[in-house]
Design a protein that fits this description.
214 residues, Rossmann fold, 5 helices, alpha/beta
Length: 214
């Protein structure tokens, strides 16, 4: 047992590691090291999932598909809001598009590294939003409520309806189909979203407009 050199190496707790990771990410942001050494602050996974916050990132393919759908739906010069859907936001930013603008509404303050496009958002206070976030100022709102409960969906729906000019793209569990129709008037799409890790619950997309997801 004494031969095992690893016994003498102190192990960092997962909490400490997460804090370190957050610190280094912020440091890289401050120093403008966005692309050095292959680091891309917008790549999915650059900020790790926090399961305690019910975070599950989409697969790269799904995030790309949803981002492309949002760009088409928003139209040239359109505004896109990502509510609790950071991996779609990241994929939109990866595109470096000049024909649209996007912001991220998110509870997890680690995403504040994205600067002015980050808006702290707690679904428990659906209309507690900055004054400069004007009503009906987004061409499309993409939302992925963190919990599969009617309360969470209903409160997130208040935010969505406040922000959108009309178009809504909702991602949530298949079991929420009835509630999604009730609170947002959205219908299920044929497209099946996938996550980078398999979820126990079947996941679906819902829209209230003629989309490319069918």
């Amino acid at each position: 047992k004494m031969d095992d050199d690893d016994d003498d190496i102190p192990q960092l707790s997962s909490h400490t590691l997460a804090a370190l990771q957050e610190f280094y990410l912020e440091q890289q942001q401050r120093e403008g090291m966005k692309t050095s050494q292959g680091f891309n602050q917008y790549s999915i996974g650059s900020i790790e999932e926090d399961w305690q916050l019910s975070q599950f990132w989409y697969s790269d393919e799904t995030a790309s598909c949803l981002a492309n759908e949002a760009v088409v739906a928003a139209g040239r010069g359109g505004r896109i809001a990502c509510v609790s859907a950071p991996s779609v936001y990241q994929k939109l930013k990866e595109q470096d598009g000049k024909d649209f603008s996007v912001c991220i509404l998110e509870y997890d303050r680690r995403f504040s590294v994205y600067g002015e496009e980050f808006i702290f958002y707690d679904y428990n206070h659906p209309l507690n939003l900055p004054e400069n976030l004007l009503p009906h100022s987004f061409d499309i709102v993409i939302a992925d409520p963190p919990y599969l409960s009617e309360e969470c969906l209903q409160k997130t729906a208040e935010t969505i309806k406040y922000l959108t000019k009309g178009k809504i793209l909702l991602c949530t569990g298949a079991i929420m189909e009835e509630q999604a129709a009730k609170h947002l008037g959205v219908k299920i799409c044929k497209f099946i979203p996938k996550h980078s890790r398999n979820l126990a619950n079947e996941f679906r997309c819902y829209v209230n407009y003629a989309s490319g997801l069918d």
